[in-house]
Design goal:
424 residues; mainly beta; Immunoglobulin-like; 4 domains; 2% helix
């Protein structure tokens, strides 16, 4: 095959993407390894840990000057020769063995141009100080799909050689994000022109309750921090830098500068988060799409001073002198509460015996919470390299294997569990 490099060679990047299976649920995790094909189209990737992988081949042509002639290019293609995740076939890597015959034939697609005329909130065209990115939404592999335009010509930024698909367009006036925009874009098989106006971000405000009483009327609980962030796992340019809102002597809070998909969270000095709602609907732990020009003032955050604690002893499956890493997952017995943050997880070492405590946030975890009294389930599984196991699909698969436990305020509970043997 011949490309536009002038050397007659089409050099393709090949990336393995690890497929983790938990009781029949598939989770994809980046492997951090890749390789470039040689002049015969062959590749070899070394030091790949044992496991199941998807292998994806990608090709990014060099950016060219404006060229009105439609061009063909190559879509991200998975083994075996699939352009959709449903048709991708996993590759099994076994300890001490070389996995061969992992062949991929790149799929040809029509390449198009995406032109973006970007202005700020006052209608002034953005200049070369602006930052733009076009990020392809691919559930298996998307790192190679982050594209940047050339310098603007007549106020228009041009992305050349774009493969059709679903994208997120991020436009920022500068690296300091004084203004920005986040736009969902569907690229078809024809050139696309977009007009985008940046904004200063939405204002989101509301009130804080503690056990049904306004925060300002409750003593001894300390202040509250309210914050919003991009969904976990998002890659690409930042589209919002939202300062935390701190309450001092009041039950009101306000966040500024929100745009794009945002996840809301909150913490209190003494107490536990119960829920975050907008117009009576639960939004805690769920991505909320924000245009950036809204004024939202109906957020209600509720905490409770009633908290519970659980001490866990984990018995491993190996010998006492051979500790095994496990992932300890603790979640509500009510699936409707999972998106609100009623999921805790921490890494631990199981032996005979080993102990871990689930009343405090683990130092290397995110999203852990003090426990609200109620009915829960807990399970220890062999560490599968999952950082944040909050996906509903994972919890649904783990639930039948997890041990039920009921927590009561002011009554520390203790439980002993063994590392679960999950059946796929």
């Amino acid at each position: 095959m011949v490309d536009e490099n002038g050397d007659g060679l089409l050099r393709v990047e090949v990336h393995p993407v690890r497929r983790i299976n938990i009781a029949g649920y598939t989770k994809i995790a980046p492997s951090g390894r890749s390789a470039m094909t040689d002049d015969r189209g062959r590749f070899r990737i070394f030091n790949v840990p044992p496991g199941d992988y998807y292998v994806v081949a990608t090709y990014k042509p060099p950016r060219l000057d404006i060229n009105p002639v439609p061009r063909a290019g190559y879509a991200n293609t998975y083994h075996r020769n699939a352009v959709t995740t449903d048709d991708a076939r996993p590759v099994v890597v076994r300890p001490g063995r070389t996995t061969e015959r992992v062949d991929v034939t790149l799929t040809t697609r029509q390449l198009v141009r995406v032109s973006v005329r970007a202005v700020n909130s006052r209608g002034v065209p953005l200049d070369k100080e602006a930052r733009l990115s076009l990020h392809k939404r691919d559930p298996l592999y998307s790192e190679t799909s982050l594209r940047f335009p050339g310098l603007p010509k007549d106020g228009t930024f041009v992305f050349d050689d774009i493969v059709p698909g679903e994208y997120a367009l991020i436009v920022a006036t500068s690296s300091r994000l004084e203004e920005a925009a986040y736009v969902h874009v569907t690229v078809a098989d024809r050139d696309l022109s977009l007009n985008v106006q940046t904004n200063t971000g939405a204002r989101v405000s509301g009130r804080v309750l503690v056990d049904g009483v306004p925060l300002s009327a409750v003593a001894g609980v300390g202040g509250v921090s309210v914050f919003a962030h991009q969904p976990w796992g998002y890659t690409g340019l930042t589209y919002a830098e939202v300062p935390r809102a701190e309450t001092h002597g009041t039950d009101r809070f306000e966040l500024i500068g929100l745009r794009g998909p945002m996840v809301f969270d909150a913490s209190i000095g003494v107490g536990t988060l119960v829920s975050i709602k907008r117009a009576g609907q639960i939004i805690a732990g769920r991505a909320v799409d924000v245009i950036g020009t809204e004024t939202i003032d109906d957020i209600v955050i509720e905490f409770t001073k009633e908290s519970a604690r659980l001490d866990v002893t984990i018995t491993g499956t190996g010998a006492a002198e051979d500790p095994e890493p496990v992932l300890l997952v603790f979640f509500s017995d009510d699936p409707s509460l999972w998106p609100q943050g009623y999921v805790q997880y921490t890494r631990a070492t199981a032996s005979s015996p080993s102990a871990a405590e689930l009343g405090k946030p683990a130092p290397d975890s995110q999203g852990t919470r003090y426990s609200v009294p109620g009915r829960y389930r807990i399970i220890a599984i062999h560490d599968p390299d999952i950082t944040i196991p909050e996906e509903t699909g994972i919890l649904e698969k783990l639930r039948p294997f997890a041990t039920p436990v009921t927590l009561v305020a002011g009554q520390p509970a203790k439980i002993s569990i063994s590392v679960a043997k999950l059946v796929r």
